[in-house]
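Quick check before the chapter quiz. The format below is the same one you will see on the exam, so make sure you can read both the input and the output lines.
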Amino acid sequence: MRRGLLKPLPQLLPILVLAGVSAAMWAAWLGWDQHRDVQPDGSTTGPYEAWQVIGLVLTLLVPVCWAASRRHIAGAVLGTTVGLTVAAFYDWSDDASGLFVVGVVLVMSGTLGVTALVSVVTASVKRDGRPRPGGNPS
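Here is the expected output.
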């Protein structure tokens, strides 16, 4: 009975770990920058700079590729998507206009698509790089 309760844990653990890593990386790269820059013409930009978003994406490539290369594709895709979506919702939810929901949906759909693509490519490259049983490489 006890063993049956722990059976889903190996599938759930990569999702939870990657969700935590993704939320932590959001906080490290984007969470500290909360002010908008006012341009000379009066328009505002920000709060994030391009280098911050690029840094977040490049940093998250490491755990996503690591998980996908170990056949934890659901963990790589769902964990990263959940982590970034929750972080974006938390970070942007103080917007009075309500338009932050559009941004959160864009973060969610973009993360889902990109991590799925990266995970499938990583898993297939990893699979093709291994020798096949029987010693026949083709």
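If your answer matched, good. The chain has a mean pLDDT of 86.
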